[in-house]
Amino acid sequence: MIVQAAPIRAKRVLPGFTLSLGTTLLYLTVIILIPVLALILKGAEIGPTRFWAIVTSPRALAAFQVTLTAAVVATLFNAIYGLLMAWVLVRHDFPGKRLLDALMDIPFALPTAVAGLSLTALFSANGWIGAWLEPQGISVVYTIWGVALAMAFTSVPFVVRSVQPVLEDLDPAYEQAARTLGASEWAIFSRVVFPQILPAWLAGCTIAFARSLGEFGAIVFIAGNIPMQTEIAALLAFIRLEEFDYNGAAAIALVLLIFALVLLFISNRLQAWALRHKAV
Amino acid sequence: MQTVSHSGPVASRLMPRLLIGLAVALTLLIVVAPLFYIFARAFAEGWRVYADNLLHPVTRHAIWLTTITALIVVPVNIAFGIAAAWAVARFRFPGRSLLVTAIEIPFSISPIIAGICYLLLYGRQGLLGPWLMEHELQVMFALPGIILVTMFVTAPFVAREVLPLMQAQGSEQEQAAVTLGASGWQMFRRVTLPNIQWALLYGAVLCTARAVGEFGGVSVVSGNIRGQTNTLPLHVELLFNDLNATGAFAAASVLTLLALLALVVKSILEHRRG
Fold it and tell me: Within 10 Å of residue B74's Cβ, how many Cβ atoms?
């Protein structure tokens, strides 16, 4: 049975099919599938009427709204900042470029709790940046801007790292042709370069958005977690758990899970589009 | 932007400088400042206070708990990663691409949702709760829960580095080894492992960094019991809530140093892999 599963005769030579596939399936089932199934079962157990009542309660709606709004702001920032970074790192040479490139990995490497702690202190009234912003009447900590800032920090690398390789692989012939034909630099960027990096850019933005919706560690520090104002959905689910309201927690978590899976689907489609684009 | 369209020599030299300047300024503000601030605040009250903060028994316990978790999770993840890559790269079977998607699932699920999943399974009111109570097994709010959730969050790290490499390398060398009479273990140790060692190490470094820094998932299943189930990232939050900012930053500085170390090792490995 197992030998038949491998169609190419030569591949039957290799050992370890049962062992490796068995280990993989066991690990995935125990560590990922069963726990996720537990959430889905719990969600199904609640029943549609109560489920709807939980996720449309004013506090839950406010939490979803805060999460979505801040994630949109964070993603818009990263869409522009990420594009700028990818462009500068690929197209220009300057001292410290390699360091700047390496710095793009910091938000991934740094534990989110550490990022949250530092951003909170930095932007609070007596921090380096907050001390300068507060007199201008701009408060970041304990506002939705703080939530967006934490989301933006933790998802910085996604757009840069998706656009960078595509930009590196671009065929310079099109740009040269456009330049020879007298196109302005802006026209070359917007009509020749941008359409080619668009799929990768959108894919990066989608992943950044998904990551922002799920972010927790950095946000709990900076948000102040005021119900109806700066309370994010993930935190509300956490609070429901601490109140032993398992139904409430499961319903909110399930909505976030559905969001995540839909965004995963979209980003996969975008990446497939980006690959096709590259092939053409 | 319009001025650039009539790009004379001045404008074409100015624009790159403007873009580079903007990129550097934003990065300083968003990435570099938070990084520096951690150390600035950790040492704000001097070396003595910093050392005292780190040597505090509760902090030491948190460091120990985080170390134990990583020491268990990372080797298990390496074994899983190799097994998954071997099965997917070397054999064809129905549901193969579905398996690859399943391995990547933890990347798109928020850690806090992972934590909730585990609580709904192993918690007192969870699916397995009554059975665990009967046998007096404590999973939630204890080390096993912390380890399990960290395994969930880090599941894809080694597999996703090793799998593409194994696929790109093909299996000729391994087939030759087996044909010449090598046992499965000999083939793995002498052919497969040397071929994937740098990718394996790379994945292990990323996995370690993630395991050490995990917050959301662990925060759900640990119960935050001071001196017992408090990992280092959770300890940072605890100290912050205690208004002990210098202590929180001292603990955070340890995590930051580990993160920076991981980045250095990562870039060395990238260099090695070419």
Answer: 23
